[in-house]
Design the sequence.
């Protein structure tokens, strides 16, 4: 292994070549564009949802035949129907309030389709309570009717309280306090925090998983391609297997990172563009706020992403060297694929059982640590030494994979034939350089 | 100062690819490896290049083991041609040269010179897959020599070349020889060997059956060849009846016969004169390499007769 001393500059030249040929390939360009477009489109989903909701407004006319309603009743009904959240731009209901109005004219307007629903407010002469009638073709048990119903209830309550000499404003409880389980102060998690933590760690695990599956396969394909086109012999004379291995892993990894970078740029651009697009489509409003990116998680992600990719792509290179044709790469690498899937599913399930012993143990195993340690870090249930230990194990795994892959690779690349067993490779590995 | 292959053996499973092969190739020499497919030529070259390691035996160049010498010593043109199909010709030749430590600018200049010499300068910016097989082979040759190696090892460099391109490649061979390079190549084409090689080795099933300078090899049997043509008799039937004379070829132009070792070929001339023939041609020569080869190896088998799985260790 005199390759250790002379890894560069050849490994560098090879990685540059790998990067260029990968980045110039049609599949790379098309794939990147499609993924970037999808990513950008995904960031616009909230705008789309707002747009979809924003266009469905229920036009409600209210004919008040009852007299003596409290002065704040219009505001109470409107507030109940459209929400009291001042920051919300969306108004699900448009109200047309007709005190002492002409019922026949209102009925005609409803029939002409100028309104979706007609609410008639009467007062029972015996009980003095308010009575309501709703005319509409909307579903009687649908959300719109339910919303109108609760607004009507609110109005009846307000009216009753006014007759009793008080008001809703006077008796309404102040907003109740929400406290965390183990603390008497501070705020509990909001829904968006809860969702973003879980979503973020799942997303990051998927990112690592996808990178290893996709870009690891690139490495294997590239090895098999060189072997299939017999460039390999020329390369073997000019370089060492270790230089080739390093060049391929670095070059394809860099191409993969480039693709990820472009997709990430599309995502960030999409999020930044949410506001302006929202403005154009809906005429108002700003983007959806996003946050919850814990820098510790991101650092752990970066470390595990790079190391996980290195580890797996070395194994991919070794397996790729066993086949002579690109068509056989898929079957040759399927055991590795299984292993990657196992780790992936373990981490997805592990997110729900983050403190189980098996999750903790597996998070130190190099095959699984890229996912599971990340899951544990993002759940916040991990000590620094645990993370460091997993990284050390992973580094050791990379060293072992490097030596093993270089051995298998240097033997495998010269063996041409339909079926090459691992035993045959290991046998030749002993005599190959 | 030479390339010494010393008692090299290599076995692949059941197949003895090389069996105690010893050769000395002098610097500046053009050396030919002859042998059927599967005879061990490619394995021998790969072992010299240290792509494969022998089971036993050593290789030395100028007294230094091949595991120690710089990889830039060797220029290799593999039998299974290999180029990056999607890469442009100039780009990949510069890439290969850079791997051997050649400065990119120098590599580019030399590549353009060679493309010019091979009459394909317009292919510099074409992708390799767009080139014909013959032209790809020329690219492959350039890839082997750009880093100015001391020894050129070429596996079947003339296979698949048309006569024009073969002539261009032979010129290039001559140029490399003039630059003092050592050229080793394998081939099936005996006329090419006779034209270019100073020394040869004939391999059969992993063993060197005969080797040395071309002249020595041709004289190794002790027999001589006469070529005879006489007026008015294209058959020359009586030739085969002479003692120690065996007809090897009958043709309208001349008849060829082998004369047994120790016998004076002039006896054929005397016999012809004694019969009153009017002699149009009489020539004494050494047996052709083709005859020697057939004698040692049997048929010149240009089909695949690999002992090992196809392509694996040929």
Sequence:
């Amino acid at each position: 292994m005199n390759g250790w001393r002379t890894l560069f500059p050849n490994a560098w030249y090879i990685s540059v070549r790998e990067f260029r040929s990968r980045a110039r390939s049609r599949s790379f360009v098309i794939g990147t564009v499609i993924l970037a477009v999808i990513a950008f489109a995904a960031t616009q989903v909230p705008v789309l949802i707002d747009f979809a909701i924003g266009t469905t407004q229920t036009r409600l006319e209210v004919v008040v035949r009852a007299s003596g309603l409290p002065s704040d009743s219009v505001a109470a009904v409107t507030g109940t129907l459209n929400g009291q959240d001042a920051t919300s731009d969306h108004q699900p209901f448009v109200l047309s309030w007709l005190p002492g109005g002409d019922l026949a004219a209102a009925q005609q307007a409803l029939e002409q389709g100028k309104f979706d629903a007609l609410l008639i407010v009467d007062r029972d002469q015996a009980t003095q309570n308010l009575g309501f009638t709703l005319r509409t073709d909307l579903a009687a048990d649908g959300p719109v009717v339910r919303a109108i119903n609760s607004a009507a209830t609110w109005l009846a309550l307000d009216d009753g309280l006014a007759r009793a000499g008080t008001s809703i404003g006077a008796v309404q409880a102040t907003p109740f306090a929400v406290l965390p389980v183990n603390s008497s102060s501070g705020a509990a998690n909001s829904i968006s925090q809860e969702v973003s933590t879980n979503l973020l760690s799942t997303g990051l695990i998927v990112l690592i998983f996808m990178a290893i599956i996709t870009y690891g396969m690139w490495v294997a394909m590239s090895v098999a391609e060189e072997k299939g086109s017999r460039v390999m012999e020329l390369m073997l004379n000019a370089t060492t297997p270790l230089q080739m291995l390093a060049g391929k892993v670095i070059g394809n990894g860099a191409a993969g990172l480039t693709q990820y970078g472009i997709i990430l740029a599309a995502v960030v651009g999409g999020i930044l563009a949410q506001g302006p697009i929202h403005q154009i489509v809906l005429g108002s409003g700003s983007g959806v706020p996003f946050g919850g990116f814990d820098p510790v998680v991101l650092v752990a992600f970066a470390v595990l992403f790079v190391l996980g990719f290195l580890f797996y792509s070395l194994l991919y290179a070794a397996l790729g060297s066993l086949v002579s044709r690109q068509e056989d790469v898929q079957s040759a690498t399927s055991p590795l694929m299984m292993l990657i899937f196992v780790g992936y599913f373990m981490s997805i399930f592990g997110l729900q059982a983050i403190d189980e012993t098996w999750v903790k143990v597996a998070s130190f195993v190099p095959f699984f640590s890229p996912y599971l340690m990340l899951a544990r870090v993002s759940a916040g249930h991990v000590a620094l030494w645990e993370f460091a230990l997993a990284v050390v194990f992973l580094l050791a795994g990379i060293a072992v994979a490097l030596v093993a892959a270089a051995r298998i690779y240097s033997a495998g690349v010269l063996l041409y034939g339909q079926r090459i067993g691992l035993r045959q490779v290991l046998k030749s590995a002993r005599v190959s350089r | 100062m030479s390339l010494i292959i010393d008692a090299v053996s290599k076995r692949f499973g059941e197949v003895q690819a090389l069996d105690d092969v010893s050769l000395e190739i002098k610097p500046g020499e053009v050396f030919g490896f002859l042998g059927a497919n599967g005879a061990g030529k490619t394995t021998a070259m790969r072992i010299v290049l240290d792509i494969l390691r022998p089971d036993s035996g050593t290789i030395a160049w100028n007294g230094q083991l091949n595991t120690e010498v710089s990889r830039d010593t060797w220029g290799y043109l593999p039998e299974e041609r290999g180029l990056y199909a999607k890469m442009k010709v100039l780009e990949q030749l510069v890439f290969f040269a850079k791997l051997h430590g050649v400065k990119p600018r120098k590599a580019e200049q030399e590549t353009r010179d060679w493309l010019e010499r091979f009459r394909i300068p317009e292919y510099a910016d074409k992708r390799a897959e767009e080139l014909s097989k013959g032209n790809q082979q020329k690219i492959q040759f350039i890839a082997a020599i750009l880093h100015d190696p001391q020894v050129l090892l070429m596996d079947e460099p003339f296979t698949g070349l048309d006569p024009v391109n073969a002539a261009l490649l032979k010129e290039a061979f001559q140029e490399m020889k003039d630059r003092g390079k050592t050229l080793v190549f394998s081939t099936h084409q005996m006329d090419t060997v006779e034209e270019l090689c100073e020394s040869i080795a004939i391999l059969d099933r992993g063993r060197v059956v005969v080797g040395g300078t071309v002249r020595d090899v041709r004289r190794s049997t002790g027999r001589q060849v006469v070529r005879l043509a006489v007026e008015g008799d294209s058959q020359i039937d009586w030739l085969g009846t002479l003692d120690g004379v065996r007809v090897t070829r009958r043709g309208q132009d001349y008849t060829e016969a082998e004369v047994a070792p120790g016998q004076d070929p002039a006896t054929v001339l005397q016999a012809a004169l004694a019969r009153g023939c009017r002699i149009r041609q009489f020539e004494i020569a050494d047996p052709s390499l083709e005859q020697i080869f057939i004698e040692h190896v049997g048929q010149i088998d240009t089909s695949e007769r690999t002992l090992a799985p196809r392509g694996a260790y040929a």
Remarks:
- The first strand of chain B starts at residue 3 and ends at 12.
